[in-house]
Amino acid sequence: MSKLRFLSTIILAAVLSVVGVGAANAVSSRIKDIASLQSGRDNQLIGYGLIVGLQGSGDSLRSSPFTEQSMRAMLQNLGISTQGGQSSAKNVAAVMVTANLPPFASPGSRIDVSVSSLGDATSLRGGTLIMTSLSGADGQIYAVAQGAVIVSGFQAQGEAATVTEGVTTGGRVPNGAIIERELPSKFKDSIDLVLQLRNPDFTTAVSVADVINSYAAKQFGGAIAEPRDSQEVMIMKPKSADLTRLMADIENLVVETDTPAKVVVNERTGTIVIGADVRVSKVAVSYGTLTVQVTETPQIIQPEPFSRGETAVQPQTDIQAQKDGGRVAILDGPDLRTLVSGLNSIGVKPDGIISILQGIKSAGALQAELVIQ
Fold it and tell me: Which molecular-function annotations from GO does this UniProt entry contain (predicted)?
């Protein structure tokens, strides 16, 4: 059994072992684990910078002219004249710098940044990112990044062979950026709060609103939450409430969540993940595989002595065809355990189970969404 098929078998077994008697029951989770605050989302930052100090693994300035232009502009800003000769150093690399500005970040706090090579540099290991401004979608500078680059991959090269492990043209600078500007909106200035479910579902949205209203009835004497759709739940701020304390209480409330039935299939890796609420109507399934083996055993024919003949090669091909499986099984999956047991009873491998699930879906017997990655 290959590693991919072995992994698929483990995943199916793990899904089966997790599902017990109460498979159809909803799962209880805290609101902070299933939803996020709309005003508390991340903001993406981007910048262009240079990494210096590489050991001959940087950009070749002829193939990456923007690296040389950036290096000259940087030196001129530092008061160093670059008129005259052309540099041929390969210890500099141009990179794109990206980061996520967390919600409610204040000036002076630090965030991690990621760097990715733009030119033909072979490795960023050992380099240092020099001062790079990071801008948001509005063009404003929100952070400045600088620091040593950490690269997880490595590359070893000899005269006749090269070994590369991981990605050497990308890395991270932990706590490498200092926030210089805070976001214009203030949390305390908000009138209403909007919760966004990470997995949109109408049933879960209604449950979240009901739990919040039950809490608000005891604390404030009335309902404050209203589900807008399958993803958003609006919370109206009571006049006597402090938003920070209100959100701290709400995010720790426990809600019973619900999700649509899904079957996720990855044909490249052979991974199959079946949700607990997947149902299959009664259907007959037959699966068989045809294996064709071709063996080439050429024969060498020598000429008779003193016949002035030539040595010849006579081809000989043996073809064997073998058909496995072909059994017919009736699947009726009222729950996940019965479905997986029925699929395993046919005796097929994970790649065959993928084909069977696709066929069951086409026949209209799979009462779930089939997601193929």
Answer: structural molecule activity
- From the list 65, 43, 46, 53, the residue with the least C-alpha distance to 116 is 46
pTM over 0.70: no
Contact 274, 12 (CB under 8 A): yes
Return d(Cα 192, Cα 270) in angstroms, integer: 46
Q: What share of the chain is helix, strand, coil (3-state, %, to 5)?
A: 25, 40, 40
CA distance linking residue 159 with residue 152, whole number of Å:
24
Which one-letter DSSP state was computed for residue 322? E
* Residue 164, φ and ψ in degrees, nearest 5: -125, 130
For residue 315, give both structure tokens.
């081809």
Using a 10 angstrom Cβ sphere, with 0-12 exposed, 13-18 middle and 19 or more buried, the burial of residue 52 is middle
Which DSSP symbol is given to 252?
T
Q: Which domains does the chain have, with CATH numbers?
A: 3-23+262-372 (no CATH), 43-179 (no CATH), 186-257 (3.30.70.3400)
